[in-house]
Amino acid sequence: MSSTKRAAWLYLLVAASLVAQQPVPHPTTAAEAPNRDTSYIDAQGTAHITRVVPIPEGLSPQAHAMLAQQMPDQGPPVTLAERRTFTDDYTFHDGLNWTKLCPNKLVNDTIAGVPVRIVTPDGMPESNRDKVLMNLHGGGFNSDSSSYSESIPMAGYTKTKVVAVLYRLAPEHPFPAAVDDAVAVYKELLKTYKPEHIVIYGSSAGAILTAEVAVRLKQLALPMPAAMGIFSGMGDFAHGGDSQAMYSAGLSGHLDPPTPGPQFSEYAGTTDPKDPVLSPIYADLHGLPPTLFVTSGRDVLLSGTANLQRAFLHAGVDTQMVLFDGLPHGFWNDSRIPEAIEVSHIMADFFIKHLGTQVTQLDAANPNQ
To answer: Can you name the residues that pair with 107 across neighbouring β-strands?
Structure first.
């Protein structure tokens, strides 16, 4: 995907997420852009600021080029249908790019009546056939923006089958439809796989859903998976986080001032935002499996990820947090960025450790493969 197209879909993602965008005459121009830092704190403690932020040193040239892409900070909103068409297109092409690095066999199927995408990596050893990863994709709960780019590298780098759950989407199917679909698939996988041979993970909306599913499994007294991955998520639909007021597609793109109160209402629907399944930060999290949290310095869900991990820690859950400096939300979807390859191996290594899967020495020795 060209840098121009990548910038376009990033902007489309941002624009599509706007609930009430107020039109303005034109995007900010170079002449109008601030060139110094300012800061004013009003009587309510709200910060009115401008910041001039260079790209951090140490990032790869590819990441630097991605962050340097210009994106308008104002523009017309897009319809949900337009968003879905665009995300379907770019996530498919992301999948093609990842397949060049991680060859696989991909099959569309259903499990427990739920559509799934099953990715079997080339070269999967016989010893890994009794293990499986269950992926819950991102996409703001209203589209599929990453089922290919989340499942293909994990299958390739763990040499383990991945079942990507294509759960029902909001607003047509608000909470708890996605949770119900994921739980149904997990229950069916338990008929074939031991729980200690299953991992559940996801990014963005899928990261949120991963925590929600874990709480629901506990309520149902179902056995927990061996481990989980929460890659840029949150666990509190009652309150927004600090990063949601600062980041859109990183530091670029449109961003409305935050509004207090419940978040992501199209997904939450009429459910109490403090419901313990919808918002796991209010749940009893004791007994959840080891969990890897991943986020980045310019991630819109940085605060949500950190707050949820802290709740896991308070509950005595074995957790790790990995944070990449300067990069935006979901940067790991782009296989052309070395940092995406690096973090994919970090994720895969965590799953390998807790599943006891086997990879070849060649796989383990090439973190940039």
So the answer is: 118
Give the up-direction half-sphere exposure of residue 124: CA atoms within 13 A in the CB hemisphere. 24
User: 268: helix, coil or strand?
Assistant: helix
Q: What span, in angstroms and rounded, lies between the C-alpha atoms of 160 and 100?
A: 17
The arrangement of secondary structure in 6-17+19-365, i.e. its CATH architecture, is: 3-Layer(aba) Sandwich (3.40)
pTM of the model: 0.91
In the block, residue with structure tokens 């209203």:
142
Q: Reading across the β-sheet that carries 319-328, which strands appear in turn?
A: 104-111, 114-121, 161-165, 132-136, 198-203, 227-231, 291-298, 319-328
Of 172, 174, 167, 237, the residue nearest 202 (C-alpha): 167
pLDDT bin (cut points 50, 70, 90) of residue 359 is low
DSSP string covering 44-69: T--EEEE---PPPTT--HHHHHHHT-
Whether residue 4 has pLDDT greater than 80 = no
Confidence band for 258, pLDDT divided at 50, 70 and 90: confident
The mean per-residue pLDDT over the stretch 52-67 comes to: 95
Contact 288, 228 (CB under 8 A): yes
Q: Which residues sit opposite 106 in a β-bridge? A: 119
Confidence of residue 358 (pLDDT cuts 50, 70, 90): low
Q: Could you state, in order of their start, the residue ranges of all structural domains in the chain?
A: 6-17+19-365
